[in-house]
Inverse folding.
């Protein structure tokens, strides 16, 4: 178990990509980390971007990241400092985008109802465990073919290392 | 026996048989991107590959913000044109040709049995032609440009059997909203949806496209309808117009390539829907699965209507709206954006555009329009919009305090005639 405690931001079900990163910015903001971070969760929690700190985690309900395929919905959180999104479940394109950009996306349904915004958790990626509210929650490891992409830091770093 | 989706993925990955849960690598026949192509090109530039591996497999449309509303958007398009020129991409569709999913079907880029991966969440669309197609992210498209291949997890299948036929005034859009309302926004998460049953024979090409397109809103990875006489007739009629020089060869290729469902295919889940029981439906703010029968929300205020998008911007949709508003005047503003230039041309020749204009509607350039809040009809604070599009998320049309209701195009047109939600039959 790592020593670091991660501060939790808790949200509900079906947190879609439009409230994570509004569509009106998708063709004008793509790569600038500060600009991406500034609009993170803009239409869900306008206070988030200013208050998020490096190492924070988001805990959410079902179907996190449904909607658009826009990858900024992942990178804006990453640049805002988010270490991991832990959810009951993810929308499939969001899940792929998270892995491909080195953002931890962890499916762990039982933790969702036991934590609140401001609580702390610890994350052990080697043991596939999360510790929070004085309990330990296990989560399923990624398939080996996919884990190598995440471990490389994302799809592009993975391809660069492969070549 | 394998499902239709499994048959397509097995062939695409060079395996005899694939099973759900397995990770396979495929080389998709088509890789789609649109206005996001400049951003993808920047990711591609991080890789050592100077050239796209299979330029003939790329398809790029300009559709999400067309014509460009700001110099930033215009520069984005200019960068894409430069990439297309430098890489020798032949299948590039300019501003005004239409929305990627409609255009690639009309142009015969995708057909039965083929595979497409696209940097667009409504990529399941092509299943209406019996193809396998799924949405992916921008980095993955950059990787496909470089290497030509990508991993996929073979999805479990949800089969939806359709019986009976839709009542008058009810469309496939109502069917999708009923399904999504019942099963939820993640009702088919990670799954392939396969439609089956005698009810399919009553569904027109345009309404089939709306059906597979909207399965994205149920979380599906892909959705498909087995090719039948309706599919082949549409392909022949359309390709004869868009590629008269080689449409016979293209159809021969599609026929040789098509795969069909096997009688005893094993699926993870199965549902049966009697089409005659589907009611006119509305998705209320701010999620697509927040559905109610239209009868329960009739009378709510409407400020503006929008008919268009890859979901419901086709000829059949414009025809339904034109028929309703013909000889009447709209009370609420109505924006109509045909899904493609071909749809616009056909709607003009059929008199639909004149009827819509005479009633007071506004016609926009073929493309995605205000669907994702970029331009051309975004909403004001507090406005209520009734839309034939696919998403009603908060802020989707550019303004978080606005409310978006989703419905079929006839309900949109009828509601704009009276300035409140109403079914055409109650006008």
């Amino acid at each position: 178990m790592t020593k670091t405690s991660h501060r939790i931001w808790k949200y509900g079900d079906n947190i879609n990509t439009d409230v994570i990163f509004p569509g009106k910015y998708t063709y004008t903001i793509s790569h600038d980390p500060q600009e991406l971070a500034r609009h993170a969760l803009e239409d869900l929690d306008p206070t988030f971007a200013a208050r998020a700190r490096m190492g924070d985690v988001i805990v959410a309900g079902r179907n996190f990241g449904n909607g658009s395929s826009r990858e900024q919905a992942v990178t804006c959180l990453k640049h805002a400092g988010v270490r991991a999104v832990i959810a009951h479940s993810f929308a499939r394109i969001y899940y792929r985008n998270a892995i491909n950009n080195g953002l931890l996306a962890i499916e762990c349904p039982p933790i969702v109802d036991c934590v609140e915004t401001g609580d702390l958790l610890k994350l052990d990626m080697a043991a596939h465990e999360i510790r929070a509210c004085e309990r330990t929650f296990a989560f399923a490891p990624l398939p080996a073919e996919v884990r190598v992409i995440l471990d490389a830091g994302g799809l592009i770093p993975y391809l660069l290392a492969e070549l | 026996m394998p499902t239709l989706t499994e048959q397509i993925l097995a062939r695409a990955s060079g395996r005899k048989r694939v099973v759900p849960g397995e990770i396979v690598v495929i080389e998709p026949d088509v890789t789609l991107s649109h206005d996001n192509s400049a951003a993808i090109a920047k990711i591609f530039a991080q890789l050592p590959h100077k050239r796209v591996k299979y330029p003939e497999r790329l398809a790029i449309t300009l559709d999400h913000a067309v014509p460009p509303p700001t110099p930033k958007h215009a520069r984005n398009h200019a960068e894409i044109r430069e990439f297309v020129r430098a890489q020798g991409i032949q299948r590039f569709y300019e501003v005004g040709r239409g929305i990627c999913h409609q255009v690639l079907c009309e142009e015969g880029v995708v057909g039965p049995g083929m595979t497409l991966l696209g940097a667009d969440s409504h990529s399941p669309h092509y299943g209406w032609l019996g193809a396998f197609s799924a949405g992916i992210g921008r980095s993955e498209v950059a990787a496909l440009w470089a290497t030509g291949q990508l991993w996929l997890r073979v999805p479990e299948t949800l089969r939806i059997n359709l019986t009976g036929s839709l009542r008058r005034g009810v469309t496939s859009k109502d069917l999708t909203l009923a399904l999504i309302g019942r099963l939820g926004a993640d009702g088919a998460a990670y799954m392939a949806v396969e439609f089956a049953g005698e009810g399919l024979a009553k569904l027109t090409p345009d309404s089939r496209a709306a059906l597979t397109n909207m399965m994205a809103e149920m979380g599906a990875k892909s959705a498909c309808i087995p090719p039948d006489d309706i599919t082949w007739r549409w392909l022949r009629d359309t390709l004869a117009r868009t590629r008269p020089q080689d449409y016979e060869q293209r159809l021969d290729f599609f026929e040789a390539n098509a795969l069909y469902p096997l009688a005893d295919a094993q699926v993870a889940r199965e549902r049966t829907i009697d089409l005659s029981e589907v009611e006119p439906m509305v998705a209320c703010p701010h999620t697509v699965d927040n559905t109610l029968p239209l009868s329960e929300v009739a009378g709510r205020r409407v400020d503006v209507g929008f008919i268009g998008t890859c979901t419901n911007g086709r000829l059949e949709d414009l025809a339904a709206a034109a028929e309703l508003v013909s000889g009447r005047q709209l009370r609420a503003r109505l924006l109509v954006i045909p899904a493609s230039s071909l749809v616009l041309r056909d709607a003009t020749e059929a008199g639909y555009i004149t009827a819509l204009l005479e009633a007071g509607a506004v016609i926009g350039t073929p493309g995605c329009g205000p669907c994702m809040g970029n331009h051309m009809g975004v909403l004001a604070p507090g406005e209520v919009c009734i839309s034939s599009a696919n998403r009603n998320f908060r802020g989707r049309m550019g303004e978080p305090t606005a409310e978006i209701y989703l419905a079929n195009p006839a309900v949109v047109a009828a509601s704009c005639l009276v300035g409140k939600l109403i079914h055409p039959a109650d006008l």
Observations:
- Chain B has two domains: 4-274, 281-426.
- Chain B has 15 helices and 18 strands.
- The mean pLDDT of chain B is 98.
